[in-house]
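Subject: complex prediction, re-run

Hi both,

The earlier run crashed halfway through, so I resubmitted it with identical inputs.
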Amino acid sequence: MDLLLDIIRLVVSVVIAYVVVFAAALANIVFERRTLAFMQDRHGPNRVGPHGIFQSVADAFKMMGKEDFRPALADPWIFTLAPIMVMIGAVAVQLTMPYTKGFTPADLNVGLIYIVAVTSFTTMAILLGGWASRNKYSLVGALRSAAQMVSYEIPMILALLIVAMVVGSFSLDAVVDAQADYRWIALYMPFTFLLYAIAAIAELNRGPFDLPESESELVSGYGTEYSGMRFGMFFLNEYAGMTIMSMVAVTLFLGGWHGPFEDALVVGGVAIVPLVWFLLKTYVLVFALVWVRLSIPRLQVDQLMAFAWKVLIPLGLLNIALTAAVMLWVPRWRWGLFVVGWVSFFAFVGLLDPILKRRLRKQRERVPVVTS
Amino acid sequence: MGLQVGTLKMTMDEIAADVVRDFGGDLENVRVQEPDTIVARLAREKLKDVATRLKAHPDLAYETLNWIAGVDLGSQLESVYHVFSWRTNTWIELHVAVPRAKAEVDSVTGIWPAADWHERESWDMVGIRYLGHPDLRRILLKDDFVGHPLRKDYVDLAENHPHV
Amino acid sequence: MFDHFATPEPDEAVKLALRRIEERAAAGHGSDMEGLAFNEVVVNMGPQHPSTHGVLRLVVTLDGELVKDVIPVIGYLHRCKEKLAEKRTYYQYIPIVDRTEYVAGMNCEWAYAMTVEKLMGIRPTRRAEFIRVIVGELSRIASHLVAVGTFTADLSPLGTAMVFYMFRDREKVLDLLEEVSGARMMFNYFRFGGVRYDLPDGWVEKCRDVMKGMPKLVEEYESLVDDNAVFLQRTVGKGVITQQDVMDYGITGPNARASGVELDLRRTRPYSVYPELEFEVCTAQHGDIFDRYRVRMEELRQSVKIIEQCLDMLPRGPVQVGSLRAPYVITPPPGSCYVGQENPRGEYGTYIVSDGSRYPYRLKFRDPCFCNLQLFPKLLRGTKIADAVAISGSIDLVLGGIDR
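This time it finished cleanly. Structure:
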């Protein structure tokens, strides 16, 4: 009997995971296009359905109807495998999300490590796809993607470590529980949250870190040779990733499903109101992702790497040391972390910009225009 | 401060007089085209030498090549050089006659780097071969195009562009 | 069996790039990796590429992200304009000139009209001169908006926002030009000795309104990127054109002025009524990408200033020499002449040889982009791909003019 229940639970979870991934991807595409259009003073897609909300459904059907095309010189197996693999990460992460009070499809005791492990799958797929395409743009895009993942995984893990330190567990349920009563981790460790957010955007390959497919340089990077539904899978994954990274961020830093009126409406043991809070918080972050993409120009490869290795990783390590020190020696360590977190947050935000500009000014003086 | 335009105030007649004084042996028919251009003819053997001296001239210093045009005059071809002098803020236009039968003239890329593409264009369009040019390929037309379309005797045939 | 996917035989440019790689490898400048003869790949950027602004093709030799060598290949938009001139009367040729640098058609027509007028020895009427300056500067505003907009779009989606803002405002300028000439891009508006139509009723007020709003819009654009650290990081100190380059390669226009060279034909070789107008030649000191962008933004302001002065000074009178009906056939006396004019991209001029017939005997364009593009290999060598894209955007090429 228990086995049967487990199997039913598993099937339901997987179905939910798939539904969430695809629905999120389709919704995000329209959401982003409309938001960007609004910010850029134009209309955006508004023909299919009310306010164009079915635009991406129509696009998905169009993509499925396209010819299944493969370049003659591409590696047939890997070229086919890559778009299939690319979704694994997104779906697998979904399985451990604590959606609401009393509903976590699979509460792993190593949830944090699991998230880090499976999200890298996407990069593997991108690397394979770019390599198998036999296209130089694809190859450069894929290599950029790999380099970027390797670099930004580290600050991300450093940020996640702090969460594990504060909570004392790797389980996502435990993380959410620890954030009850508005003790959201982002509220007293904003700097850690910022580190995580930057690394997560880089992991997502989204602007300003969208180098693997930077369309003005590499046509469309690793996806240059892909068309039809194969391209569609990469595309869906990218947009599903927005939601998933936001969900992870909400769970780890913004209190998960916690919010007012948690027990107001319970249907079959599943609380509905926390689910709404969870989705609401997620979409605030998705909006922030769109906003960031619009307002920051794309970095350059060397600048991107320098930012990870020379800025984020040292700061991440320093942050861990500070947090550990505070937790060890300060009696009411949450307040200690609050002070340290906000001070370092403002120091980072306030100092980065002037330091960068000063360096640029100096660099500029070094190149003479007048030669004769 | 580097590069400035028109630091040396000279009238066109003075400049023309200077040109005649220093290059009178090589340049023929030196005349002033109002408001600010000196036009002269030049034998093609002397082109490189004169160009070097024009560029190195202490006052006039014709340092920047503006453009080169190949012209088919019927009996002969002509390569026209338009060169700018920063100091006097004037131009000089050199007309170099090139015989039709042996359409060759020395390249001036070594003197004025800007000449590179202009010479390629002139070769492409009018068929003047610039000797000593580092990379004299067609520039606007396809690699396998036959003939030089801006010559007056050019006849457009299907064979001239094989890949269309 | 016929292979649909066979890689085509490399053309001359690719062969040249490959040859240069081998030469470098032979000279010991190849790979630093053990066992590899060379690790450089030849990539065709263009003619279909999102950031080449037309059909420019760059054969780029890449070593990883590093650009080792660049060979520009042009001619994909070649429309035989110089050949067409042989079979068109001077009058018929005006619309074709529009299509050379299609982003600033008015300025191109102006240069052509000036050359023919010089050949014929006629001067346009005073009112026509002022109208020419107004439409020319409007055209310059429209062109700079396109240039800066597309350049920032190469850098990021932020630039895409900039493009939309700029095109929104360019629309106002194009509406003005449309009311004057009847067309938005291919104007066919200049005539020898004047312009085709007088300004319509109420146009001056409309133009004044648009110009009044313009400086505020420029400020809006500047607020988007000028202080953005990432934008600065991408543009400051990169792609430096030195003054020696300006001299060697005949660089003109904003690209030269960004290097501190005060070369502006409106001042140094004054034509039309520019000597009577007050404006500054905008220059910058460092010659990098950011300075080129800044110079263009400043020029937007100066153009607004010029137009406002012209609107104030606009005299009454005819807009055509002689009768209003243009002379459809003109025959300039035999001779040749060249007149250069300050296009938004630099010195644009036409060299015309006339044999006294109704057709130009030989017509040659001196196109600023053609000359600026020559500098590309030197400018791009040793940069990153991303830099290369930013630099080529900042040079502002229009392929219609380059390929003719």
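The longest helix of chain B spans residues 12-23.

- K.
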